[in-house]
Write a structure and sequence with these properties.
- This protein has 188 residues and is mainly α.
- The chain has one domain.
- The longest helix is centred in the C-terminal third of the chain and has 36 residues.
């Protein structure tokens, strides 16, 4: 078992783009305004648990329900594609869920640890060593936690224009990732 800095960096960057916590700042701010407070620790622990569990038993779970990893990855690439289109075009494909349990649903799941993130974990597992993926996940959760704890400051620093630019930039990155995931799992 060894740690590879290049793999950790690659995994971290891929997950950073997929989780898109910076692009989610407008959604987080909206949730905070509706429910009053976001429980950052609870959100991070739940999302981290989901991601780690899926990293280790996700493929077996898919086998039990009769879905292969490639099909799940293609489905996830389509979800990522539509999320990216929302970000780039500013239109809404998905309706918001109830805000009563905002720290868990929709924040921890599916916003942070959603289908796109889980699909990406399965894809990463075939390319990178598990210990490097775990380090990449943990590094991302440090950033997620800091963003959740500092949404007030980030809102003031970035302003409306800055938030919009971030959302669109990460939308383009997500589009590229969605296309790569689709191509690598379809052989195109």
């Amino acid at each position: 078992m060894y740690f590879n800095f290049k793999e950790i960096l690659s995994v971290s960057m891929i997950l950073f783009a997929i989780i898109d916590i910076l692009g989610s700042i407008p959604i987080i701010i909206d949730l905070r305004q509706k429910v009053g407070k976001i429980q950052s620790e609870k959100t991070c622990l739940v999302a981290l648990s989901i991601m780690l569990a899926f990293l280790f038993v996700g493929e077996e779970l898919l086998n039990i329900i009769g879905v292969d990893v490639a099909s799940f990855a293609i489905a996830g690439s389509l979800v990522i594609f539509f999320i990216a289109m929302e970000m780039v075009l500013g239109i809404t494909f998905f309706k918001d869920d109830s805000y009563e349990t905002a720290s868990i649903v929709p924040l921890a799941f599916p916003l942070i640890a959603g289908a796109g993130t889980l699909t990406t974990l399965l894809s990463l597992k075939s390319e990178f060593a598990t210990q490097n993926i775990i380090v990449g996940i943990v590094l991302n959760f440090v950033v997620v936690y800091l963003v959740l704890k500092n949404t007030y400051r980030l809102e003031k620093i970035l302003g409306k224009t800055g938030l919009s630019v971030l959302r669109k930039a990460f939308g383009i990155i997500l589009l590229a990732i969605a296309i790569k995931l689709f191509r690598s799992n379809t052989g195109l």
